Amino acid sequence: MEHDQEIIRQAVRQRYGEIAKKKDTSCCGPASSCCGGNNVMSADAIARALGYSTKDLEGIPQGANMGLGCGNPKALAALKPGETVLDLGSGGGFDCFLAARQVGENGRVIGVDMTPEMVSKARDNASQMGIANVEFRLGEIEHLPVADNSVDVILSNCVINLAAEKAQVYRDAFRVLKAGGRLAISDVVATRPLPEALQQDLALRAACVSGAETIAHLTQILQQAGFADIRIQPKDESRTFIKEWVPGQKVEEYIVSATIEALKPA
Prior knowledge:
Elements: H1 5-21, H2 43-49, H3 54-57, H4 73-77, E1 84-88, H5 94-103, E2 108-113, H6 116-129, E3 134-138, E4 151-157, H7 166-176, E5 177-190, H8 196-199, H9 202-206, E6 213-214, H10 215-225, E7 228-235, H11 239-242, E8 255-263
Parallel strand pairs: 1-2, 1-4, 2-3, 4-5, 5-6
Antiparallel strand pairs: 5-8, 7-8
């Protein structure tokens, strides 16, 4: 029996609210568990392992990089000066701040997160940096507080798998993208169906495990939302860090990180 959608939202919101309130700026310390499990690596070390450069990490407010991702969506996006970028599940604002550098003062970055503590943290981080072209909005990624046809690029880093209604996430992403706009997402995907016990574990749902879709189903969701030029590239090497998310459960046999790219037809 599947969990009610609101129960899933509450579990995810509670988990990430607790992470946002931690005094330790890395959620991936020995006593914590997020999309990094009981990982003793620092948030910066995790970011480097996921493809972020030392330059990316320079000048970012302490606490913005929380080690919560499973890839580097900015690397996919090829952001251009003047573009409007939307980050789904923006957390402490890490990818938003990196995107702001790319799009420049004539560009704009919007971060949306459903956890009030995360939005507050991101806004505090933006204030520290004195950045004028980034804003953070409280909202669910299934129902984005963003105007139709207003965004050039949508980023997201290991968040959409947490959503209770993934098809609705992609339908709303399609709505807010301009014609010719693009998705540049990192997320987990299932390489084979997860056992029922894993699927029904709410803690694993909030830990970026049991909400993973198969590539075939995710492709179908994107097509039905209206996207074209869909490219989903699994990264088998990600099993190395995924196995540390839930030690002993062998979740790496079922899920991997993937890059997800698609276009809204012009």
